[in-house]
Amino acid sequence: MSDLAVDSPDSPNCPGVVGILGAGRAGTAFARALLRAGYEVDIAGTRPPKALRHHLRIYAPGAQAVDADDVAARAREQERAVVILAVPQEDLDEVEADWADGCVMVDATNAWHHEILPDWLQRAVDTDQPTSTAIAARFPGARTVKALNHIAHADFDDIRPELPRDQRRAAGAAGDVDADRGMVMAMLDRMGFDPVSMGPLGASRIMEPDGPLFDRRLRREDLLRRLR
């Protein structure tokens, strides 16, 4: 799994539009990195699009503010759709279960000790299960890949896509479907990371806040070492 091939950024499997649900510090950091990589970005937050536009002009210029109901609309028009879940886990009960239906949903969320989580998610935390598996069950119409969550939002402005892969910061992706994981890895590559397959979704536990990958500037060999 760790040597899974990455789709070429020019492949028709690689989307040109990515939707992001969540316009906080993480969501806008993802948007800036995607825009620099040449993607179009639709983003929705708690504010209506008209109110969100000013926020995006400052924090993610070029991103398009949309309603939460429409954040996946343009993504679904592509051969393969990718959306990013970037809302606080404590607010996940407020997210419609079908918002990402038919899409590869990148779970970029984290569980923080100070948050009061939904009961269904707290049960996963209490039993030491990866939160991504509970989130995948919560959004059954989407195909979940865990990625982006183990890198601090402030670090996304320091990505250097001009570097060869072996000199870049590594970024992990975990998901049960090889093709979906490969497509997310292609997105990470285009953003400027060295993408590493972590294997199935259950392996994402080591990417969470108390895991060995979280908020650390690591290279490919460091991530692969954790998989052995």
Write structural notes for this entry.
It is globular and about 50 Å long. α2 links the parallel β2 and β3. The termini are close together. α4 packs antiparallel against α5 (131-138). It has helices at residues 25-36, 49-59, 73-76, 119-126, 131-138, 178-191, 220-227, and strands at residues 17-21, 40-44, 64-65, 82-85, 104-107, 143-147, 170-175, 194-199. The protein is built from 7 helices and 8 strands; from the N terminus they run βαβαβαββααββαβα. Helices cover 29% and strands 16% of the residues. The model has no long low-confidence stretch (mean pLDDT 92). The chain is α/β, with parallel strands linked by helices and 228 residues long. Strands 3-2-1-4-5-6-7-8 form an 8-stranded mixed sheet, with helices on both faces. The protein has a single domain (17-156, 167-227), classed as 3-Layer(aba) Sandwich (Rossmann fold), CATH 3.40.50.720.
Which features would summarize this protein structure in a list?
alpha/beta, Rossmann fold, 8-stranded mixed β-sheet, 29% helix, globular
Write the layout of secondary structure elements.
Layout: E1 17-21, H1 25-36, E2 40-44, H2 49-59, E3 64-65, H3 73-76, E4 82-85, E5 104-107, H4 119-126, H5 131-138, E6 143-147, E7 170-175, H6 178-191, E8 194-199, H7 220-227
Parallel strand pairs: 1-2, 1-4, 2-3, 4-5, 5-6, 7-8
Antiparallel strand pairs: 6-7
Helix pairs in contact: 4-5
Pfam family, one: F420_oxidored
InterPro entries: NAD(P)-bd_dom_sf, P5C_Rdtase_cat_N, STEAP_metalloreductase
Protein name: NAD(P)-binding domain-containing protein
